[in-house]
Structures are given as structure tokens and as C-alpha cells.
From TrEMBL, chains A, B, C:
Organism expressing this protein natively: Cellulomonas iranensis
Keyword Secreted (UniProt): no
Catalytic activity entry: Hydrolysis of terminal non-reducing beta-D-galactose residues in beta-D-galactosides
Name of the protein this chain belongs to: Beta-galactosidase
Annotated keywords: Glycosidase, Hydrolase
Top-level taxon: Bacteria
InterPro entries xrefs: Beta_galactosidase_Trimer, Class_I_gatase-like, GH, Glyco_hydro_42, Glyco_hydro_42_N, Glyco_hydro_b
One Gene Ontology term of the molecular function aspect: beta-galactosidase activity
Entry keyword annotation includes Hydrolase: yes
Length: 679, 679, 679
């Protein structure tokens, strides 16, 4: 399955990949360079196998140097040049970074912090998302571009805005926030109920009194804050949509997207994904942290989940170092390749970079690029060329999918609600929890789809919800059905606590699921530093730190229980086996990694799920099966071995063209892309 | 002695406790709940022995949903319901948290930071204490309540505002600050002298130039800052007083109070206490820190001191966890009881909690309550019920006092002055010093009154002033008289340094007391990290870190002296024995705990003071005698033993009803309340 | 050499020191005290040998208590009193700290932060450097003083402003910034090129759009920021110059200065120094940090470099403790003397202190002074008197110079550019690098001149540029000539990277010097925490942390190379020996101290430079030769020994008057000032 061909239906990535195979490219910002350099650029692109460039992301001031005066000739030349050299163009609306004139003409078009500080130009993304002036001018430049390039044969994708994320607390936004709240809550009475304004004397008597959560002397109303996060994400989505509509009008059939940023806190990408023709993600793992590869893999599975399982695209990654960390360890050439192939293994049909040629000026001049300051005769650029060649050898995976029997539930509003100030403990953090439950699955090579709580879960044998703190009534049934139909549901601590308005559900927790898991709790117990001891036949005896809960066993079993102290006898892990074969598990503690892995593996066993057949990998080796290709990716900077079985005829490595079998060595950060040989 | 009966004279707590014994209760915020829940509430209160509820603290928006439109019917029902069920009502003026409409109608009624950021509603306590609009509306709602409920038989106490603490730097406040300064200093010349404006060219030429210490590029004038702290405290007190006066007019004879917060930095409670009919304190010890019980005990002794020795009231404490720390370890049931009884032992005639029923919404939904989210069938609520029963068994202590022969001097302006920026060292901190000198007294079970420097000290054999950095001329004589009349005076480092305007007293320090202690200094010496060695017959040889002083012995003795280095031979502890038996001690160093305990115990010996007779307690066991009841409180989470002697007939434990003698075991966090058996 | 006599030519320090010898003095702020105290002051000054006082630094409000009303009588008395007692007066323009009335009358005369917070009075230095009102009033008070005291025989130096350093982001400053940018860049097109505004859509279309780098959502344009630093320094210099011109008009021949602050980030003192008649520096080493003496020595060499080798002046230092650190360890009496003599050894012709008499009020009341709160009968003041006497014994050094064959290149714009946010690593810091390369020179007693990259380097055999990140085209030639003429050039990591506009130079780095050093790089490599191993015959095998570079050897030699990992074989230190005897060295790593010392010492050997002859000092003993006096300063707080040879007749210690030879003991923090005995 590969998606549409572009004629009618929803435009997809397949329109491009069917033509050129896996996409390989970069942001190309030629306005920084003399046209002579452009010609060198396209020659180098061809030599490197680059087949896609994103153009114009930051070009507004170059395209419209003063209000209403457009200068597009240079862009004509750039687009034609790429097209003439067989490089597809992903054309951006340049609306992320308005020219200085916008905020000078209309100061209210600049964003304001919760403290009332108005942003200035001089950086990027300083606009207010609710400013009528900004939106009008952004649509105007979008329209000019769409009219000019909508039918250009070289422009094969559109890239609206860039890394949406700005949040503003100004009066424009307050106005829009109120409109959004009216739509959500219907009446002021309902808003007062939802926000719990009876506490702390916050009752609103007129809509005009309602404001974003601005600077206040103490804790802000948590539902006011939660709704503001929802609004802020929706407001940015509205910007995307209105520009997309202009593009689509002039470029029907051409896919439109914007670049997401994985687990990006301000934007609920589940609400965005249905509106993106292509899920495109910016991926910046930290080469200084060897364990960060697990987080990156999880992020890829999220991207694939947002795409509904269809191929997605790495829109940005670094070829070497980034520049925005305090200490920016560069990727090695082996890591450049490893990281790119990890994304392909997990469903990406393209691997693009920021940016093509390293800037000599501006705030990102120390960010690596495919062509370094020292030019093409460099280790980095040689790796770029080599990688282009091997991506061409992976055309077989284009359009194929990863099949998963395990779902990991993740939800932005739940993340937001769980990490409001004034929760029981800041040591219980949503993303680390999600990652902790994901890690054993990654280690075992078990494919995982990251889905929302409202997803159709019927295809999954195991559903893991590590930190579903907020769960809406409407989603409870779907999660319960997992167990009812014989599947396994695993819930992490502090789950099921609040409803859509972040109100605590009264009763014994996890309130909507306590009967499913056979146990129930009455108190969250952030622990003194010494922690507490657990006893468990399954997990062994371990010490738990930071978090436990006062949980009793009802009609389930205690898989692990606290020994000693005030919580003596409380369950730390409780499970109920249901007559129909289903199992409900609840973990009421922050388990140490090995114990948590024991829980996850017991759930895998109960669900009958295991890693890919025929491949037994050493520690640190990530195994992913996509379509009929099994990728083995060595996350370690030392050699590892993979043991292959499972087929009488042995395996074939698409990257090297070699046939392999038995114990196969993997170089540090090395990769295999295997298919089973057929006789 | 028990205080007044409420008919004429100053209203006191006795009016309530004579009727119902020790008070036991909570903040009740029923506006969060359906009236059906109210009826369950009062039934549960009766079952738990709750006899006092604080109502209406955050009800302004419920009582006056729009300006001038009052809706009090619901409160009528609440007050009647409590009254009908025998629960006394402490009715609050809801003025801590104004409704949104106040700050929308009058933006200047919202507080402004030193940086000029104006606070918004959405939290609580966002008002400007000097805003005429706020004050007018606060008095109006107070008047409406006082008129309606002043004579209600169920309303037995009034609770004005809540946790006063907001400070504001706005123009209203600047205006009020100038008025306050005029009253304090009389003339601009005197202000210029007091503030030392000859330095750094700060001389004021007109009153209108004088402002609060707003954002500035470098250190702010310390006396300007000190006077602003004084003003800010007085300004909040003025709010209390004007509301109290309205209440008193309509509810003569009913005690009026507000809830203090122990060693709360912004408010000089010594100036507040004379205006409170009941000293009521909010107490939030940290269950995660086993040593915090000493600080809490000290805080209780402060509350008792503020009450002039009369019974006081714990107005708020947590039953389990709070929600505002980064990591909120809950109290165990044993700690709930232990903490409550500690307050009673140290003079409280009541023990109240925040809040009755756990909120499901709002910023405090994760703060524990007497009725948890999981309902009354929980460990916590069962402990609440049990504790209500045992409080009833302690009626004997109602109205009784703790008798102390040791005074600990503590003063807010001295605290403020000592911790201004640009002092010799931030490692010398006022509260830790006070606590360090208090700890040995706590360990020995020696009763201590925490008093101001202007207190009548004649009743005390030992007066300890650990950190009396600022001392007014008027208070010097009282402190000197301690020694002159044969008592012992112990002064900590950096004491007696500045006068009321925070001007350094010139001469050899401690300037006003150097002759009393028989030694004098010329330089404060924050130490290099290695510290310095002391030699002392009394204390042994110890190493001192962070702070010493260049002190010479005059006509006293060096109890400890520095050995080696640049300070070789300087006194670290100096003492002078006076002919009349008095002793003056000065400690010119930050002594390690054991050495400091040696100093304190030598002073106790010299003063002839010791802990309670007949009780020899193990470490961690706090012993306090109130009236004729000796409380033994085990601060450890493991068993301890108390050895009882001193009476031929043994002892009787009021809590268990058992007779005990000899070695008596104390459970972890356990408590005894003993009286001597009479034959 | 020694400078002018004051009659015509440029006024210099010699006009004073020829008369009174080494200067010794303090800031005298008598407006804080009753005139009776003034008389005690001058008597104590005479007794202590004090011969210079700085008067009036913070006196604006005392001199002009309201706009236009001047009260100078008190200053007449002060100046006359000093003069009558033979104490020279350095008269300040009081413009650093405007009176409250200035900012009240003209709020726009108060500075604004990048976040838009306007400063208030109450501290000091709150003015906006671009405010026309401030500048007009500052000139007015300056003119009044200059007219009144320009010809006063007691006023022998003028001190304009104080510790210039304030930066402001207000509209006045934006206007001035634009004017400055016009002058620098000529056209908006050129500004757009220089700032690289093609990136991130920052192109300016009108001058009015150009602003200082105010609060923005993300990284600010680095050249906008760099130019703003340049502007801010120049703007402060303009204030100095316009006041100086007024002074000079009325006090021709009297030297004018202001007090610098060593490596003070906001002010490019290389641009200031040519306009100062006397280089005067404020020096606040940290007595708590034994290694800080090396930094202080470097700072003195910077001051001497700014003075072009001529004598300079310590304008401020502490006699004991300062008050602005979190923990202010005081100097001992031995350190007071040691620090003062270190400055003299390194070229200072005077040693002054802040301040004469300790304030009792105001923000600096805990800053030490020559007369402590406890009065003159104190250890500190006795040391002051003793030191005055020994300074008189050093008259021989007045006007003499330190001769250096090593230059250390330091540049403010390079510092600014290297530490912009978003560089490869914040662990590579400019000043620590400079200090690291300086330390071995300090240890070996090698004299070093700290110079700018545009200096005439022909006199130096070794030129060390530890961190010349930014180097202008115009300065490249001078640095290259060092090698071309047979000298040694040593470049540290990340050098030669950017041009004057902070644009990265494309090509293999260090781009302008790669051929000189015989190696070239293509990637900066901030290291993972484990670091990398180096192998080196010269330096031994060492482990490098934090920073290496991907450097290859071209036609030079690898002095040290990486072993293992991704950088295996890359050069860490590369050197090229040139036919004419010159050598170019490039260090592409953050070497550990011993290895770096090895590099520096190899460069010293190659250049034929060594420490002072005849003196072999133990570790911690700093040896400096000034004129014909060799100073040995013991930085340790324990005894050390110096071994003297080199003259048959032995040596003579000017401080004690003793003849010494062979092994001479140095007390803790002790000093020798030796001359060779002549037969």
C-alpha cells in the first residue's frame, strides 16, 4: 500500500516517493548566498543523491521586503534551478518569521508573555497568533506564493509555517481565548463549573472577565491553565489551516504539511495530524546521551502513529552538531547514518536535514549542515554522499508499514494536566514515565504504535497507558474493552485520576478502572528519600523511591506489595485475571527499571506478543521490522553481534548487498537491513 | 487561668473552649459542593468530634457575584446547619481573594511587583493592599456579613482575611508608604539621615521623590528596604484592623482573629498580636524532614509568645500531604496525631485543619483534607475520627499554660536587617541561627518563651538572643538588666550590630553589650572553606566553618579561642561573670551543633534551669509540661523509651487511661500525656 | 620615560608621583560625616602616609540638591582641608549616581532593561546613557565643578564618572544605536549584509526598524548583539569624553581619568585607554580563592598594557572584605600588603582603596575601609599605617617599567563574539582560556604584556592568542608577521573563526592562519563526557575533556594527536617550523593544565624567553622585575623560600632594608623587593 497518486483523493507522500524513492534532502536557504553558490549547490545535491529541498521557510523579508511589495524573481530562479536538476521542491510559506516591518507597523502583532513583556523582532517567531494584522499579512504572502507556484511542476510539497509553538498572553489572544471557551463550554455557568471557580473566589460573572493565565501571586487555576494550553494549540492549528486552505486552492493534489517536533509540549499533534497530508517531524536526538536513542525511537513511533501507520517524513535533523544546547556534541558520520536509518526503519519514507549549507551569519551559524563551512571535501559531506547512495538501495521499503500488536497510549491534555504545578510530586513526570514503559518493548524489538486514548484499540493485544492521568469519560469505554475482549491493559501510577476538566474523580482510584485491575487506592504517597521495600514473587524484592500509593487488593492479586512502614501490605502492582482471558494491571509505584521491565514482559507474555522472529540481537541493538525488511541498528559505539536464524536460506543485507547468516557482526553504530533469502 | 467568658472585656478563646473543650475542626468550603454533601459533612463532623469550622474564607465571589449584589442565602443554610449540629462557626471575611470583577473594574486594585508587573486574577491574593477600591469593597462585604451574622448564635469566632502576606510596589502603595514614612520620620531631613542618603547621592529633596524599593541596577538602600518591610507589614495590619472594627461593631464579645503563619517573613506579628483576640497559626511542618519537628516546636513557642502565654489555636495544618512543595510526602496517621498533640502540649487549645473535604477542582485539589477524595472509609479519615476522641480526653489542659524560665529573643526587623543583600555572608542566616540555639533547649525539654527584644524579661533566668542583629536603643536597657539583676544573657554572632535605622553602631562590637560580655570585636570574618580551629576547655577542640570574628578578651574570659592562622588568639566565645551572679556570654562564631549545645547547657547551668522533673527521655523524644500534664512526643519513626520517676505513685496517661511507671515504651511517633498519680 | 610635568603635553601621573612618590589613598566621602570627623580624617591620613583622596564620586545630590541649585561650600572646605594637610585631591564628577530628582523630573532618563523594565532610583547608576536630560544635567554639574576647582592647587587629578557599565535598551538608546550603526555600516544594505539578515527573515527595510536586541522568543541575531555591545561601550565612552572635555577646558594640564574594572565585559577598554590621561583600575581579587592571584596579576598586566607600558594606578581595592559576594572573606593584613605590592610590582605607581572610612549606613556599610567601624585602634588600620610607611621606601620604582618579550593578545569584541549564545559549547569560555595560557607564564616569572590584536607586535618574541575567536582582516597581517619575522605565534582553540561582523570564515580553520601552523580543521568537536585520549612525545599521554577539533596535519607536525574513537589521528596540537626560524602553533583542544604548560614552555624555549635571572622561586612565589627592582610575592599562606644568585654582591631588600643572599625565607603572603647590591 502506498497512498494516492495525487490525482484526486488526499494527496500523500506517495506522490513523491513513487517517483524518486526514499526522499533525501534538506532545508535550502539560498537567499543567504550569491547565485553562483546556488549552481554549486544543485551540482552537489545531485552528486549526493539529494532529491528534495525545502525552500523559503525564512524568506518572508526577502519575498516581501516592504508591505505589499513582492520580489519573487530570485525564488523563481531557485525553484527552476532545483527543478531543472531533478530536485523536488517543498515550498514553504514563510510565515513563521515575519519581517521587522510587521511588528513595527503593528506592535500588537508581536507576542506578549504572561508577565506582559512584548517580544521584539531580531530573532524569529515573535508574532502573536491571534493578531489580525499578522494573520492578514501571512495569508497575503501565502496567496502570492500559492498563485505563483501552485502549478509549478517542480513544487511537489508545501510546507506551511515552521515549528509552530509560540504562545501569547496579549489582549488579542484573550479575546480569542474567550471565543474558544464559549465554543467549548457553551455558557459561563458551565465554565465556572468546569474551572471549579467556587474555590478561591474565582467565579466569573461576565465573559469579559475571563483571561488567559497571566502573572499571578500564587498557583493559577489548573483548568484555566489546561484550557489555555488547549486553546493555544488550537489557535496555532487555525493558522496552519487558513494558510493550507489558500495553498490547496491553488495547488490541488499537492501534499501540504508542516514540521512537527515529536513530543512538543505546546501543541496537541493528535488534533493536528488529521489535517496534515504528510506527517513530517523534526528530530533532534542528543548524541551526547547514549540512551537518547530510545526516546528518539519512541518519537518515531509517535510520528507513525500520528500518520495512522502510513509513511511519514523526517523533515529536519542535524548532520553533525546542533547549536542550541549548552554543549553540542556532534554526531559522528556513523551516527548520521544510524539516525537516518532508524527513522526509515520506523516508517519514514524520507530523511531530510537542517540545513543544506552551513550559514556563516545569523543565530544558527554553528548548526551543522550537509555542506560544512569547510566545504564538501570533509568527512561530514563524504558521509552525506555515501548515505544518499545507500538510501537508494532501500527503495524496497517505500510505502511499507510496521505492524504492531502493542499500543502505547499517550495524550497531550493528560501530559499537561499531570504536570501542573501543585501536583503530589514533581518527581513523577509524564514523559519519563512513558519512556520507562517503552524501554523494555524497545529492548525486546516489540513493535509499538503510539496512539491516543480515543484510538480504536481492537487491533492490539496489549495496551500500555503509562501515565494516563487525565482520561475523558468518552475514552474510558474503549480502554475497558481491551480487557473485556480478552486483551491486556497495563496502567501506570497516577492514572485515571482526573476527568476532561482536570477534576479529580472521587472514589477509590484508578476510579474508572479499579474493578478491571482488582485493586483500588485512596492516597498517593510521594516517598521520603529512603523509599520503601517491595516483595514480589514475579519481580523479586526491590526498593522503590519517590512514589507509591495506598492501594488495597480487592478481587485481584498483589503482584508486588510494600513491606514495612506505614504502607505495609499495600499493593504496588495489582493484577486481575478476567474469565475471558483478559488481564488488567495497575502499577501504583515508580518501579526501578528492572522491576518495571518484569511487569511489561509479564504483560507481553500474557498477551502472547514477542519480538521479531529469526533475529536474536545483543544488548543495545535495536531490531525493527518494516514491511519485509528487518533492520538491526547498533546503538552502541562498540561492536555488537546479531544472531540470525529463522530461514533456511539465510538473509540478505540490502545495504551491503551481502548474504549473511548465523552470527553477524555489527560495527559500532552499524546497521543491517535484512531480507530473508528465498530459495 | 482561662480567659474571659465573653461578656465584656476582651473576647478570648475561652469563650469557646469553656463550652466544648479543645477545639477540633477545619476550613469548610461548602460552596464547592452540592447541598446534599453538606448534610453528609455535618454528620461526619459529629462522628469525628469536630466542633469548629471556618467558613467563607474564599467565598467573596459566591457572596457578591457582581458588585453590590449579595447572595447570602446559601451561607445562611451553611451556618444554620453547622449550628444545628453543634458545630461552632468561625466566620471569615472573604477578603483575601477578591472576585475577578474587582480587578477588571479597577485594574489599579491589583498588586504590582518591584519590576512593574501587574498581577492578574486567576489565583488568589492578587489585590493591592493600598487600593482604595479594594479596601472600600472589602469593607462593604465585611459589613454585610457582620450585620447578618454578628448576632448569630452559631458564629463564635471571626476570621478576618487569610494568610496576610502580599506586598505591592504600585503608585497607591508609594503614596501610602510616604504617609507612613512621614509619620515615622517626621521630616524629610530625618528620613535622609535615617536612610543615609548622603551615600550614593540618594538625598531626597521632596517627599514626592520617595518611592518603594523598585527594580534598580544594583543594591537598594538597605534602610529604604527595611522601612518598606515595616510599612508593608503595617499596611496589611491596617487592612485587618479596619475589617475587625466593622466586625466588632456588629459582633461585640465574639473573638476576632486572622491566621498567622509562624516565622512568616513579610509580617511582623509582634505588632499584630496585640490586636488579635486569639492568636491563630497555620502550621505546615515537612513530614519528609525528620528534623523539622524542632522548627515546628519553636514556631509553637512563638505563637504562645505572641499570645502572651495564653492559649492559642492551630488554625490550619495538613491531615496528610500538602500540594505546594515540589515533592509532597504525606503525614502518616501517627504523624497527624503527633503533630496535633505537639501543638496542644505547647499551649494550643485547638487543632484545626485545611480543609474539611478534599476539593476535586482548583489549585488545591491535591492538598489533603479530613475527608479524602476516596471518602470516609479510608485510613486517613479513620485517624481523624480517632484523634477527635482522644482530644476529648485532654479537656484537663484547656486554658492551662506552659511555664518557662528561658526566653528566646526574636525580632522581625532584626531578621529583615540581617538578611539584606550585601551583608558579610549569606551563610549566616537569622532563622537557622535561632533554630540552632533553640535545639539544645528542645532536646533537654526546657520550656522556652519566644519573645521580642522589648519584652519584660524579669521573669527569665536565661535570655538567649541568637541573632539580634538590629537592636533599638530603647531595648538595650532591658537586655542589659538581665545580667545586672543576676541572670544570664547569651548573645549569638553578629548581634547588636545596627540600630533601628540599620546604621552600624561604631566602636567595638557588640557595641551596646561589649562591657557585659567582657570582650569586644573589630571585624566580622566570613571564613575560607577550610574554617579555623578552636581550643576550649568547656567545649573541646572543634573546627568552625563559615563565620568567626576578630574578638579580643577585655575583662572577661575566653571560653573558646581560635588557634592558628590570622585570627590566632581571638576569642570565639567570651564570657564575663558579674559580681551579682549574672553572666554575659557572646558567641563570635558559627559553632558546630555539639559545641553550641555545650554553650547553651553551660548557660542553663549558670542560670539553674533544667528540663521537667521525673521524666528522662531518650533522644528524639520531646518533653513538654503544660499545666500539670507532661507530654512525651516521639519524633522518631521507631520505638523509644521514656523513664519515669519523681512520684511514688506513678503516672497516668490521659490518652490511654493506663497507669504507667519506670520504663515506658513509646511507639514510633507515639505520644504520652501524663499526670502524676495522687495517692 | 615618566611622562609629562603637567606644563603642556599630555598630563600624566608623573605630575603627581614626581612630587609625592607612590600614591597611597582612598575614596573619601566626607558628606556622610560631621565636619568634626573630617578633621580626624586628615590627621589619620597624614599619620598613615595617605597622599591622595578621591572626593565627590557620589556627591551629586549633595552638590545640587535640587535642579540648578548648587551647594558647594562643604566641598570647598573638604578640598581645602585636604590641601592644607598635604593630601592631593582627585576630584570626581559625581555623574555616576544622579539624584532622585533627575529620574522623577524625567522618567526617560532612567535606564530600561531588554525586557522593558525601567530602573528606579534607590541604588546607583540608574541613568540612561543616551538620555539628553541626563547628559545635559551631568555636563552642567561637571561645568560647575570644573569652573570652581579647575585651578585649585589641591586638585591634582580628575575622576570622571565611576565604573562605567550601564547598558540600556530604551527608545533614546535605540535612536543613538541607529546613528552609531549608520556611522559604522554606512548603508542599510551594508547593515543587512553585516548582520546576515537574509537568515530568519530579518532584513531591515528602513533605519527606523532597527532596534537594540530586546526581549525575543529565541536566539537574537548575533551581529545585532555584537554591534550593540560595541555601541554600548562607545556610548559610555562618549559620556566620559564630553565630561572630560569640560574638565580639561577649566583644568588644563591636570590629568583626567575614570576607574576601569579590568576584564569588565560591557566596556572595550582598548577603545577607552587612548582617552585616559591615567589608566586607573579597580581591583577586587577574591581572598577566598588562593588561585585568584593569577587572575589579578593578569588584570594588572592588562592595565599596564592599556597604559602602553606607562605607570598606572590602582584606584580602588578593598583593605579587608567586600560586601557584594555571597560570602565575603576578608583579606588579612598580610594580604592587604601583598595585593598592594603586587600592583606596584606590575607597574602601578599608586595604590588606592575604597573607601577611607567605613560607612555606617547605605548599601556598602559592610564593605571594609581604611578606618573600620571600630576605629583606628584595630589590626586593619595598623596594617594601613605600616603599609604607608613601606610604600614610601619604594620611591625608586616610580615611573619605571616592566619589560616583556611575550605578548598575550586579548580583544573585547572577540570575547563578546565567542560567548554569544548558541556557540558550539559554553564550556569553552574566553577568560578561562586566556587565564589558562597565562598561568604557566606567571609561574615562570615571565613578563607578559596584554595587548590588542591590532598592537605593534614587533617587540615580542612570543605572541600568545589563547582565544582570538574574532579577528579582523586588518589584524591578520600583524599576527602573521610574528612568524614571518622569526617569532613564535601560539593560537588557542576556536581561534580565527569569525570576521569583524562575526561571520564564520569559510574554509579550513584557523582560516587566516592555517598555512602558518601547518594544519587545518573542518569541525569543532565538543566532546562527550568521557573525553578523548591524546598521544604526544612532548606532552605525554593525556586525556582531553570538553573540546577537540577535527584537525589534519598539512605541512606541519602533530605535536599531539587523538588516539581512538571517531577523531582517531586528528591533531590536537599542530606546529609548523618555518625556514626563517619562526614557528606557528595551533592548539585544537582544551588541554589539561600540565599539557598546556608544556605547550607554552615549548613556545618559550623556541622563542628563547625565560624568567628573571638570578631568582629561583618556589611554587606559589610570583616573581616580577620592574625597573631594577625584583619583587618576590608569596601567594601562599605558608612560608616559602626564594633562592638568589646572579650577583656576587648579593641583594638588598628595599622593604626591610636588609641585605640578603642565597636561600631567603618568605613569610606567608610575604614580599621581597630586591635590588642587586653594587660593590
Amino acid at each position: 500500500m502506498t497512498g494516492s497518486d495525487g490525482s484526486g483523493g488526499t494527496p500523500t507522500l506517495a506522490a513523491l516517493t513513487d517517483e524518486v524513492g526514499l526522499l533525501y534532502g534538506a532545508d535550502w536557504n539560498p537567499e543567504q548566498w550569491h547565485p553562483d553558490v546556488w549552481r554549486e549547490d544543485v551540482a552537489l545535491m545531485r552528486a549526493a543523491g539529494v532529491n528534495l529541498v525545502t525552500v523559503g521557510v525564512f524568506s518572508w523579508a526577502s519575498l516581501e521586503p516592504r508591505p505589499g511589495r513582492f520580489e519573487l524573481d530570485w525564488l523563481d530562479r531557485v525553484v527552476d534551478l532545483a527543478h531543472d536538476h531533478g530536485v523536488l521542491v517543498d515550498l514553504a510559506t514563510p510565515t513563521a518569521s515575519p519581517p521587522p516591518w510587521l511588528g513595527v507597523l503593528w506592535p500588537s502583532a508581536r507576542a506578549v508573555t504572561a508577565d506582559g513583556v512584548r517580544m521584539s523582532h531580531g530573532s524569529r517567531n515573535h508574532f502573536c497568533p491571534s493578531s489580525p494584522h499578522y494573520r492578514e499579512r501571512a495569508l497575503a504572502v501565502t496567496r502570492v506564493l500559492a498563485e505563483r507556484y501552485g502549478a509549478h511542476p517542480g513544487v511537489r510539497m508545501w510546507h506551511v509555517g515552521n515549528e509552530y509553538g509560540q504562545v501569547c498572553w496579549c489582549e488579542h489572544c484573550a479575546h480569542e481565548y474567550r471565543a474558544w471557551l464559549r465554543a467549548r463550554h457553551g455558557s459561563l455557568d458551565e465554565l465556572n463549573r468546569a474551572w471549579g471557580t467556587a474555590f478561591w473566589s474565582q467565579r466569573y460573572d461576565e465573559w469579559g472577565q475571563v483571561i488567559p493565565p497571566r502573572a499571578a501571586p500564587y498557583l493559577v487555576n489548573p483548568t484555566q491553565a489546561l484550557d489555555h494550553r488547549r486553546f493555544a494549540s488550537d489557535q496555532l492549528l487555525a493558522l496552519y489551516l487558513e494558510q493550507r486552505d489558500v495553498v490547496r486552492e491553488h495547488a490541488p493534489g499537492v501534499p501540504v504539511t508542516t514540521n512537527l517536533m515529536g513530543f512538543h509540549h505546546p501543541t496537541d499533534y493528535r488534533r493536528w495530524a488529521p489535517h496534515l497530508d504528510v506527517v513530517a517531524d523534526d528530530v533532534y536526538g542528543d548524541p551526547a546521551d547514549p540512551s537518547d536513542v530510545v526516546r528518539v525511537a519512541l518519537t518515531h513511533d509517535l510520528a507513525r502513529g500520528l500518520a495512522g501507520g502510513a509513511p511519514w517524513l523526517v523533515m529536519e535533523q542535524a548532520a553533525g552538531a546542533v547549536n542550541w544546547r549548552p554543549h553540542n556534541v556532534p554526531k559522528t558520520s556513523a551516527q548520521l547514518r544510524l539516525d537516518s536509518l532508524r527513522a526509515v526503519a520506523r516508517g519514514a519514507d524520507g530523511s531530510c536535514f537542517f540545513q543544506w549549507r552551513a550559514s556563516t551569519a545569523g543565530a544558527e551559524r554553528y548548526h551543522s549542515a550537509l555542506v560544512p563551512h569547510a566545504g564538501p571535501d570533509t568527512a561530514l559531506h563524504r558521509a552525506v554522499v555515501a548515505h544518499g547512495a545507500e538510501l537508494a538501495r532501500l527503495r524496497r521499503v517505500v510505502g511499507t508499514r510496521v505492524t504492531a500488536r502493542v499500543a502505547l497510549v499517550f495524550d497531550w491534555p493528560s501530559w499537561w494536566a499531570a504536570e501542573e504545578p501543585a501536583s503530589p510530586s514533581q518527581r513523577l513526570r509524564a514523559l519519563p514515565q512513558v519512556l520507562a514503559y517503552y524501554r523494555p518493548l524497545w529492548e525486546d524489538g516489540v513493535a509499538v504504535d503510539v496512539v491516543g486514548p480515543d484510538a480504536d484499540l481492537d487491533a492490539y493485544d496489549l495496551v500500555v497507558a503509562p501515565q494516563l492521568h487525565l482520561v475523558e469519560d468518552a475514552d474510558v469505554a474503549g480502554l475497558r474493552r481491551v480487557v473485556e475482549r480478552g486483551g491486556v491493559l497495563l496502567l501506570g501510577p497516577f492514572s485515571g485520576v482526573v476527568d476532561r476538566d482536570a477534576h479529580v474523580r472521587t472514589g477509590r482510584f484508578p476510579v474508572p478502572f479499579a474493578d478491571l485491575v482488582g485493586g483500588s487506592g485512596e492516597e498517593w504517597v510521594p516517598l521520603p528519600d529512603a523509599g520503601v521495600d517491595l516483595r514480589s514473587d514475579l519481580l523479586g524484592d526491590v526498593r522503590v523511591h519517590d512514589w507509591a500509593e495506598r492501594v488495597r487488593v480487592d478481587d485481584g492479586e498483589a503482584v508486588a506489595a510494600v513491606v514495612g512502614g506505614d504502607l505495609d501490605g499495600c499493593a504496588a502492582v495489582v493484577r486481575r485475571r478476567h474469565p475471558g482471558g483478559g488481564q488488567g494491571w495497575y502499577v501504583g509505584a515508580l518501579l526501578p527499571p528492572d522491576a518495571l521491565a518484569g511487569v511489561v514482559r509479564a504483560c507481553l507474555d500474557a498477551a502472547g506478543v514477542a519480538g521479531p522472529a529469526g533475529v536474536r540481537a545483543a544488548a543495545d541493538v535495536e531490531v525493527v521490522r518494516r514491511g519485509d525488511v528487518t533492520f538491526c541498528l547498533n546503538a552502541a559505539d562498540r561492536p555488537r553481534t546479531v544472531h540470525l536464524t529463522g530461514t533456511a536460506d539465510g538473509w540478505h543485507d540490502l545495504l551491503t548487498g551481502a548474504d549473511v547468516a548465523g552470527d553477524v557482526p555489527l560495527a559500532p553504530h552499524g546497521v543491517l537491513a535484512l531480507i530473508e533469502r528465498t530459495p
